[in-house]
């Protein structure tokens, strides 16, 4: 791999031990990928948490030991330097304000708080969300980034037109203190063009339909790049957030185009650039029903124990929608409702009084984690309901529960009545 003089200086240790480890990691990683060089990044989103049991023995030696092992893949403990470039913390396993709800041990919460203090002072903005673009991290078109988290990556590439591969904790740790990442994959223009044309033949407008469309398309294209044609409604940020998360979970979609909407596709032709589509996919009534049936294939019992909203983390608009639907009502005594939003938006929701409206109904407004990442659900949960295709995809496998997928209205209704009455219209 070709290195600049500044990169060579870091690799030789002239910028300190941590940067040497980071550059060594990036060079090995880049060479394994076949990258010819590194690229400058000024925007990193990763994790610097320490709450999980696996980190306990390291945290007992101090946060530098956590950083060295988990963010630099180094057995040698090095001092954590300041972040060199704009860096933020994504979602992790613990909502430090709601451990009494999730049942997370106090010592794990304490470890997480220490990590936030330690790494926060070294320049990691503690956004604690899978949607950093909702709370101030909005890279511009063409900006090279190093982000983790599949739903954030596909939003970064497709909706913002910024450029990132799906990075890991170690590569984002190294990128944060060097401002470098291997130049390959989605950093290169030629890898960003569409591969499949999707002919959308049904109306796709509400949140549930955007989730179904994403889930269907992701399953077919896997890691390729769909281009959506035939849409009759312009999607909002929350619908694109929902679509991308669904496509990234049934497949591994990291990039898509919507001609006339997403920035790298002013037209259908521009979406494919010099490439010819390798296939055309039809999305009609039958495909919509197939996606719905697949997402609901694990569920049989209509008595719902737990309702989860906020995957990807809810916007303030979504929190408000849920609060209005709960206003003046009470949850079924047999059902819990957890609503997840970025930490900064939870603070806003509390200032606006939405948090109180949600709690008055018996539900919880939460942040920092989600059931799939934190592996947390109310004790004894057998049947879950969610408006998220991503949670409906993962929860049956990782939490061994039945999961219903439907609209926000279906989910709130299930929380209020304890019964699933959703369905496809
Ligand atoms: Fe975010 Fe967890 Fe969903 S990371 S996208 S809320 S599975």
Could you give a quick summary of the protein structure above?
The protein is α/β, with parallel strands linked by helices. The chain is built from 18 helices and 14 strands.
Describe this structure as you would to a colleague.
- There is one protein chain.
- By secondary structure, this protein is α/β, with parallel strands linked by helices.
- The chain folds into three domains: 5-189, Aconitase, domain 3, CATH 3.30.499; 193-294, no CATH class; 297-417, 2-Layer Sandwich (Aconitase, domain 3), CATH 3.30.499.10.
- Helix content is 41%, strand content 12%.
- It has helices spanning 5-11, 17-33, 56-59, 63-72, 99-102, 106-120, 150-159, 169-178, 207-221, 237-250, 268-272, 285-295, 316-326, 343-352, 354-360, 371-374, 389-399, 408-417; strands at residues 38-40, 43-46, 86-89, 124-125, 146-147, 180-182, 196-200, 226-229, 279-283, 306-309, 336-340, 364-366, 383-386, 402-405.
- The strands form four sheets. It has a five-stranded parallel beta sheet with strand order 12-11-10-13-14, sandwiched between helices. Strands 4-3-2-5 form a four-stranded parallel beta sheet. Strands 8-7-9 form a three-stranded parallel beta sheet.
- Strand 10 (306-309), helix 13 (316-326) and strand 11 form a beta-alpha-beta unit.
- The model has no long low-confidence stretch (mean pLDDT 98).
- Bound molecules: FE3-S4 cluster (F3S).
- FE3-S4 cluster (F3S) binds next to helix 16 and helix 17.
């Amino acid at each position: 791999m070709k290195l600049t003089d500044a990169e060579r200086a870091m690799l030789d240790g002239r910028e300190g031990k941590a940067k040497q480890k980071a550059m060594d990691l990036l060079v090995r990683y880049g060479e394994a990928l076949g990258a010819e060089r590194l690229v400058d990044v000024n925007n990193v989103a990763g994790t610097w948490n320490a709450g999980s049991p696996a980190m306990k023995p390291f945290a007992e030696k101090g946060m530098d030991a956590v950083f060295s092992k988990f963010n630099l893949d180094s057995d040698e403990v090095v001092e954590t330097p300041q972040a060199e470039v704009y860096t933020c913390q994504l979602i992790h396993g613990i909502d430090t304000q709601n451990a009494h709800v999730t049942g997370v041990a106090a010592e794990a919460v304490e470890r997480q708080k220490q990590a936030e203090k330690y790494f926060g002072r070294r320049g990691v903005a503690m956004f604690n969300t899978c949607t950093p673009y909702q709370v101030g991290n909005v890279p511009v078109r063409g900006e090279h980034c190093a982000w983790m988290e599949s739903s954030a990556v596909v939003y970064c590439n497709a909706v913002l037109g910024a450029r990132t591969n799906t990075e890991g904790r170690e590569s984002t740790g190294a990128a944060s203190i060097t401002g470098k990442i291997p130049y390959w994959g989605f950093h290169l223009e030629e890898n960003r063009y569409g591969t499949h044309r999707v002919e959308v033949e049904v109306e796709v407008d509400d949140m549930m339909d955007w989730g179904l469309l994403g889930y269907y398309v992701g399953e077919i294209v896997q890691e390729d790049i769909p281009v959506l044609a035939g849409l009759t409604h312009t999607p909002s940020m929350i619908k694109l957030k929902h679509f991308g998360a669904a496509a990234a979970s049934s497949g591994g979609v990291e990039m898509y185009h919507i001609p006339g909407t997403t920035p790298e596709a002013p037209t259908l032709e521009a979406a494919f650039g010099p490439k010819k589509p390798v296939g055309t996919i039809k999305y009609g009534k039958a495909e919509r029903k197939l996606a719905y049936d697949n997402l609901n294939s694990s569920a049989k019992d209509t008595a719902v124990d737990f309702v989860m909203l906020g995957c990807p983390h809810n916007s303030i608009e979504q929190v408000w929608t849920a609060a209005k639907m709960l206003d003046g009502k009470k949850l079924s005594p047999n059902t819990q409702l957890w609503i997840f939003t970025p930490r900064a938006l939870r603070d806003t929701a509390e200032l606006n009084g939405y948090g109180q409206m949600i709690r008055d109904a018996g539900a919880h407004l939460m942040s920092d984690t989600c059931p799939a990442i934190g592996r947390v659900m109310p004790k004894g949960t057998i049947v879950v309901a969610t408006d998220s295709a991503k949670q409906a995809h993962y929860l049956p496998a990782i939490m061994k529960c039945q999961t219903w997928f439907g609209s926000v209205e279906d989910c709130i209704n299930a929380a209020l009545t304890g019964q699933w009455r959703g369905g496809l219209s």
